[in-house]
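[scheduler] slot 2 assigned
[scheduler] job type: sequence-to-structure, two independent chains
[scheduler] chain ordering preserved from manifest
[runner] begin chain α
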Amino acid sequence: MTWRVNGEAVLLLGGGRALILQVAHPKVAAGVAEFSNYREDPWGRLYRTLELTLTIVFGDPEDSRAASRRLRAVHERVGGSDDQGEGYRALDPELLLWVHATLIDTSLTIYQRYVGALTPRERDLYYDEMKALGRAYAIPSDAMPADYAAFRRYWGSMLVDGLRVTETTRDVTDSVLRPELPRFAWPAIELLRLVTVGTLPAEVREELGLEWGPGRQRLLAGSQAAIRRLLPVLPALFHRFPAARRGLLRAA
């Protein structure tokens, strides 16, 4: 299920959503503000992270373990204090779990909107496999919710009580929604902006003051319908990540 879902390149549409949700946690936001160049290159940072995680998912065992070690090495040096003076470490299981949770929820959200529905059994299997991936990210097994139902309860509780919008959250949101790119890239940016804002949980969208209404909702539904019709007729070359295609060929 992980290979089926995470191999779809359309998941790139959820990159901004995942990043904004990650920095809605004040301690994650503090680490991003101090140790990354999100303002200069938010999408580049996101895609470099994606490349590393795709290697962990689809690479051969040696490459996957090496990518996991690189990811942990990067996190080991990240730590400090948030905007209220509370200490944090990037390797704190609580923070690792939240970042991983944003990837799980975003992947399922985008896949089911733009590729196809999943059965409850398929969602359960996907979450079980993503728990194994979480261990590769240095999340202790007992730190993750036991099953998908428990994960949904964790997710809901975080939206209610675990997040807080900070200046960094707003700054990252602005850099994601208004990147400094050439004019010819504007149509793609408009689609990314539509998907990012439209798929954010309502609680986060409202706290950030992002405009949304029936007209934008209809545009989002139209984009979903168009892409869902298009993907089945495209060769895998055009809708599967290269790492996913290489992994499948190696497995075969």
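[runner] end chain α
[runner] begin chain β
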Amino acid sequence: MPVKDAVRRLGLLDEMVCAGIADGLALRTPDDVPFDGRELSLDGRPVLNFGSCGYLGLEFDPRLQAGVCEAVRRYGTQFASSRIYMQAPMYAELEHRLGEMFGGHVLVAPTTTLGHVAALPVLVGPQDAVIMDQQVHQSVQMAVDHLRCQGTVIKMIRHSDISQLEAALAQLAGYERIWYLADGVYSMYADIAPLGQLAALLQREDRLHLYIDDSHGVGWAGRHGRGPTLDRLGSHERVVVAASLCKSFAAGGAAVVFPDAELKRRVRAVGGPMIFSGPVQPPMLGAALASARIHLSPELHDLQRALRERIELCTQLLAQHGIALASNDGTPICFVPVGRPELAREVARRLLDDGFFTNAATYPAVPVRQAGVRFMLTLHHRPSDIQHLVAALSRHLPQVLGTG
């Protein structure tokens, strides 16, 4: 990126963040009172929290809390060693259980971002090419910068445009391996990648490999909560999936799911952050193990069904009020398009005045003039909470749009 463009981008980002702070929507810290997942206290006033990605509500599950405490008692607050030398004992069991859950060979990373940075420079060689969806998560785009440094050819295509993907593959005829980088569930507009079309393309095009970040699909979707991507493509030998162990999973760290043991071994041995970054510490390993046991149990089906009921209720209510979503793919993320960023902030500010904390989704998470209000549904929410939020949206949205 040219220096002038980089400076302009940072300036615009700073402007957006400062505007969010001024409206009380960004860089907030709730009051120091106990949380219950449903409500937060802001400036001494309770508000319903629709800003959490803890879709299954497991962060307050007593089994995860007990897992944290037991891990600390056994192994301390930290295991202060790089994994290249020694890892905490819980790693082996966690990766085994995650392998059962995800149906592949799992490597646990400290964060999803560091998982991308560890995996992609090992998976993608300088003689390979990369095609990147324009809305793939910023953490993946950061890892792609490492590929540029080694000389890898990078192309970007329009969001989920299979015809443009096919055209890019044709343009890259001289490359034996081409990686397509995308999200499974997109964190802003909440649409799911065109997995059926990608499966068909994998069958037709032997050079194509997929690297999918499905962090927002884990837990609430798929068998054992493996997410929509692994549910649809998990048996394919040319598919690698990264998944957060935060969000639905309610722990810490990330899982990178490989189709074979050798790929996992290579990334484990030479992936930069696997050598130089700190590990997932015992408290979060304990929480992750407890969460994995829940995901592998019949109980998960009931949790997923309860969340689907909330998603269906919200979708019906929005339709009744004539409020359109950016996507109707049935995820727990709801994005209401507004347009200009100041209008999105105004809607979110009015909702906050009414006692609902939502996200004003603006640049750089979305294009500058495609801002909106984003809110997430979790098992902490009661049906009446969703009804009241949609009613408030139906009041404020036409008023704000009428002024803009």
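[runner] end chain β
[qc] chain β: The chain has a mean pLDDT of 96.
[scheduler] slot 2 released
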